[in-house]
Amino acid sequence: MMLLYVLSLLYLLLFLFKLVDQYRHQGCYILHYECFKPSDDRKLNTNLSGSIIKRNKSLGHEEYKFLLRAIVNSGIGEDTYGPRNIIAGREESPALTDGLSEMDEFFFNTLDKLFHKSRVSPLDIDVLVVNVSMLASVPSLTCRIINHYKMKEDIKSFNLSGMGCSASLISTNVVQSIFKSQKNKLALVLTSESIAPNWYSGRDKSMILSNCLFRSGGCSILLTNNRALKHRAKLSLKCLVRTHLGSSDEAHGCCMQTEDDHKNLGFHLGKSLPKVANGAFVENIRTIAPKVLPFRELFRYTMLQKFWDIFSRYTKSGGGKVSLNFKTGVEHFCLHPGGAAVIEAIGKGLELGEHHLEPAKMTLHRFGNTSASSLWYVLGYMEAKKRLKKGDRVWMISFGAGFKCNSCVWEVLRDLEDENVWGDCIENYPPKALANPYMEKFGWIYQEKPESFTFRID
User: Fold this and answer.
1) 165 is known as an active-site residue
2) What is d(CA 64, CA 208) in angstroms, rounded to the nearest whole number?
3) Considering the domain boundaries, does residue 304 fall inside one?
4) Contact (CB, 8 A) for 376 and 33
């Protein structure tokens, strides 16, 4: 009988040890990330941007003015980058090689640097995830990387498409899920968007906007769940929340690739987009708030909300505004730089000041909206400015077609100060006055502000 008790106790201890060991290896750490900075011959200055718009012969006078107004109000500067075929004037007849060479340039530029700086060999990579929404090739983009670096035969590869601007957090979630069941793994996430084959040549106003807003870029991220490498890591993933409103027809159709009446393929941005994005954002906040905010802030919010509910019931008034103060649980806000109006709207909804909005605004001005990789340029700005200190928390917020709102919180594991792609210009940011070269060049068409993009955090 005693032997049975001893064996049972040993079995229980072994079971508990396995649970603890499994939990210990479910972390997700960023060892290094490398943003892509294209060569200077790919820069889109004011004159070139205007001439590219003018090359679209299908544009009428009103469409031309609409596009110029959009670019004037975009918040984008003169140092952003575009694909080579568009700069060369071949946007209306792109070849498959244009899209593939655009991706290859990003892939191998950033990965060469990442492997060198992290001292990790391509042969050590266990998981590879690539997200490029609007380019799907056979073999896949992951195969191009595996072939180039001659990676090992049992590597697990995932090629994601159609996920939009929030895809990098979806890719991170894929890696996180694998890490929960496998120990001591190294994973690569590559996030970008293919601009080269996706230029819209029609005149539909809801579709020509994307020609102004999107720019070339990308980021490669090296992650691990190996606790032995934690001392080398930059960031640790605390939580990740994905919100998907795709079951709603309105949400599904507000942001999508489609054809216009003349069969020109493009990317449609509908008028319901602000409303849908607001709804997705609110739902995401409801889930992530209890995970990141201290109890005192959640208690304050709940009590005040109940007070105003009772007060409005007896006085038959509208009650008062109650909002969560996310600054009590998060030090840095990494917002998707989808456009100047988008940044301002999120900042207003979360009651953020200029200090918190600065990284997203400066990223938009310097690199533009690089789709799913934009968040990592914003993070790079914070690091280059030496703002990220050990113990700080960073909240990443992204939106994508479908419609999706994905966000996550990272904890900074050590003081970070790598200047990465910002090294040659970080001292110039933020300028005293953010220059708008498009206003100076095309200000004559500016008559009235376009519809504002607004969020309401209720």
Assistant:
1) yes
2) 10
3) no
4) yes
336 is catalytic: yes
- Among the listed residues 159, 244, 252, 325, the single catalytic one is 244
Per annotation, catalytic residue among 35, 173, 198, 336:
336
Residue 389: Cβ within 10 Å count: 13
- Domain count for the chain, please give it: 1
Catalytic hit among 85, 131, 225, 369:
369
Mean pLDDT of 238-252: 94
| 101-to-105, 158, 208, 319 alpha-carbon distances in Å | 6, 20, 24, 57
124 touches 160 (CB < 8 A): no
The predicted-structure confidence for 286-311, as pLDDT tens digits, reads as follows: 999 999 998 888 877 776 565 545 54
Distance CA 179, CA 171 (A): 13
Residue 101: which domain range?
26-293+329-445
- Give this prediction's pTM: 0.88
- Range ranked top by mean pLDDT from 66-70, 71-75, 109-113, 416-420: 109-113
Strand order in the sheet with 332-335: 156-160, 127-132, 186-192, 218-224, 29-35, 235-244, 404-412, 393-400, 332-335
State yes or no: is 231 an active-site residue. no
Given the residues 165, 219, 254, 405, select the one marked as catalytic. Answer: 165
Instruction: For residue 164, tell me if it sits in a domain.
Output: yes
Helix axes 340-349, 354-367, angle to 10 degrees: 160
Does residue 109 have an active-site annotation? no
**Which residue out of 56, 219, 284, 332 is catalytically annotated?**
332
DSSP state for residue 421 in the 8-state scheme? G
Annotated catalytic residue, options 35, 365, 406, 408: 365
Query: Is there a catalytic annotation at residue 244?
Result: yes
Answer yes or no: 268 catalytic.
Answer: no
CATH number, residue 204: 3.40.47.10
Q: Does residue 171 lie within any of the structural domains?
A: yes
Instruction: Please give the average per-residue pLDDT across 90-103, as a whole number.
Output: 92
Q: Which residue has the higher pLDDT, 435 or 66?
A: 66
- Using CA atoms, how far apart are residues 287 and 418, in angstroms rounded to an integer? 32
3 in a structural domain: no
